[in-house]
């Protein structure tokens, strides 16, 4: 849906809150408008196949309704109406959305995570100077540098496949408690595969960036092209435990799942890997390396990863609550110097367990390693495996955070500090919590693009890790 000519995001929020007060006097209300402007380019076999630009805008209404025994929460999300004229289609859409959210709240009964909506703080009131501004927008011009460098990189003796996207998300959040916030968050990524027509092997690389003009596509292609010869010697290895070098992308996919699993309530109730007799694992030393896994809206050292420090959500779960909409968020060190330091608690759960409120973070940075680059770690390896990336990651056991998945687009054998060939792919079984316990070396932290979770989480900076006994449980038939 194009948002061109639509009512402003702030006007939609304000009108939704007025309608909410009319339909359900005394209820709490949250209105969130999100507009996403997205441009994409896809190519296959060194030929452009798809490109386009879309704009989509949606309105979410959260109603917090007093009930016998507590407060119920209901949420409805609809395409944002283009008109707000009283009695016309747009106003009818708002009334239907509010009424539906009220009905859902009543049907759901009292919510366990009920809490008063946060009061405005840190400039989150109606005084936000950007509140009435319009939406940010991207265009196909975002790919100006990429298109030129990519076209120049195509060669007749190799096949290039890839996908690039750039999006600008504008959000307007308003609550009946007085919070008014507008923010604009750009983001983008480039993913690229090169395939060797002689061996059929494939190599992958990707980069994330707020501005795709900062991505050196020519350099990315050259790095991948330099790895193609590694696949011209094929080596079969059995399943087993191998010393393994995980590059930053693979580390990010594992650490993202770890962060998604750090709910305080599941840990308190004995149903997560962070549970232990009588409490949680907060304060437990994991391993010898002084690694710190943190999320921080300010993203010190990595400005490209910064995000707006305000919570906006349309669902409740163990880690987040719709009752916390509008709360100011800050830095959370999930792991500090190798020790479990914090778990995610909505405000109601935090009060229940006497823990600090901590919301899931929109970026993750793992620090505490040395300055070594991945190439230097390869050079200091006697015999081991070098992975490219992981995919099809799924949870096997939440009580140990055991994950399974597959390697992809290049697993290489290192002997005497040199790459000597490409080996078969594997299925692995590992827990990211255990990997932090067993890691013997961490290199330099760098901005990276997760391969598996890119569609949901792109703001990550990770080091390469050396794991002495990474568990490859079976051979995967694909090369």
Automatic annotation (TrEMBL):
Location of region: Disordered: 104-135
* Keywords, comma-separated and alphabetical: Hydrolase, Protease
**UniProt cross-references to InterPro entries, sorted A to Z:** Metalloprtase-TldD/E_C, TldD/PmbA_sf
GO MF annotation terms: metallopeptidase activity
Any stretches that span the bilayer, and where are they?
A: none
Keyword Kinase: yes or no? Answer: no
User: What residue stretch is flagged as signal peptide?
Assistant: none
Q: Which BP terms in the Gene Ontology apply to this protein?
A: proteolysis
Residue ranges of the Metalloprotease TldD/E C-terminal domain? Answer: 240-472
| Xref: SUPFAM superfamilies | Putative modulator of DNA gyrase, PmbA/TldD (SSF111283)
From which domain of life does this come?
A: Bacteria
Q: Give any Pfam family that matches.
A: PmbA_TldD_3rd
Compositionally biased spans, kind Low complexity:
104-116
Query: Has keyword Zinc?
Result: no
Q: What is this protein called?
A: Putative Zn-dependent protease
Species this protein is from: Actinomycetospora cinnamomea
């Amino acid at each position: 849906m194009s948002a061109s000519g639509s009512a402003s995001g702030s006007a939609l929020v304000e009108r939704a809150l007025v309608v909410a007060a009319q339909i359900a006097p005394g209820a709490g209300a949250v209105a969130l408008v999100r507009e996403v402007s997205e441009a994409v380019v896809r190519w296959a076999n060194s030929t452009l196949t798809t490109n386009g630009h879309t704009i989509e805008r949606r309105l979410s209404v959260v109603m917090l309704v007093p009930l016998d025994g507590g407060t119920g929460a209901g949420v409805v999300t609809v395409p944002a109406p283009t008109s707000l004229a009283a009695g016309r289609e747009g106003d009818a859409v708002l009334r239907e959305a509010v009424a539906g959210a009220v009905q859902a709240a009543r049907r759901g009964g009292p919510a366990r995570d009920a809490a008063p909506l946060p009061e405005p703080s840190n400039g989150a009131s109606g005084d936000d100077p950007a509140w009435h501004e319009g939406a940010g927008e991207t265009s196909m011009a975002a790919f100006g540098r990429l298109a030129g460098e990519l076209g120049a990189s195509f060669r007749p003796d190799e096949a290039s496949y890839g996908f690039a996207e750039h999006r600008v998300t504008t959000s307007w959040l308003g609550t009946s408690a007085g919070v008014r916030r507008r923010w604009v968050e750009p983001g983008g990524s480039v993913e690229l595969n090169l395939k060797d027509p002689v061996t059929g092997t494939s190599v992958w690389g990707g980069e994330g960036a707020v501005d795709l003009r900062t991505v050196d596509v020519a350099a990315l292609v050259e790095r991948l092209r330099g790895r193609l010869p590694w696949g011209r010697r094929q080596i079969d290895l059995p399943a087993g435990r191998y010393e393994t070098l995980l590059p930053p992308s693979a580390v990010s996919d594992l650490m993202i799942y770890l962060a998604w699993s750090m709910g305080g309530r599941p840990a308190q109730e004995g149903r997560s890997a962070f549970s232990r007799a009588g409490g949680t694992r907060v304060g437990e030393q994991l391993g010898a390396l002084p690694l710190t896994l943190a999320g921080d809206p300010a993203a010190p050292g990595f400005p490209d990863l910064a995000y707006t420090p305000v919570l906006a959500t349309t669902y409740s779960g163990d880690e987040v609550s719709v009752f916390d909409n509008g709360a100011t968020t800050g830095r959370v060190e999930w792991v500090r110097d190798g020790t479990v330091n914090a778990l995610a608690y909505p405000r109601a759960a935090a009060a229940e367990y006497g823990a600090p409120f901590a919301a899931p973070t929109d970026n993750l940075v793992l620090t505490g390693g040395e300055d070594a680059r991945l190439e230097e770690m390869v050079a200091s390896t006697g015999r081991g495996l070098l992975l490219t990336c992981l995919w099809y990651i799924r949870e096997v056991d939440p009580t140990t955070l055991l994950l399974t998945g597959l390697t992809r687009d290049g697993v290489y054998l290192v002997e005497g500090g040199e790459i000597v060939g490409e080996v078969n792919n594997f299925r692995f079984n590992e827990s990211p919590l255990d990997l932090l316990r067993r890691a013997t070396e961490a290199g330099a932290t760098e901005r990276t693009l997760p391969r598996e979770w890119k569609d949901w989480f792109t703001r990550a900076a990770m080091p390469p890790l050396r794991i002495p006994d990474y568990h490859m449980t079976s051979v995967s038939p694909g090369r």
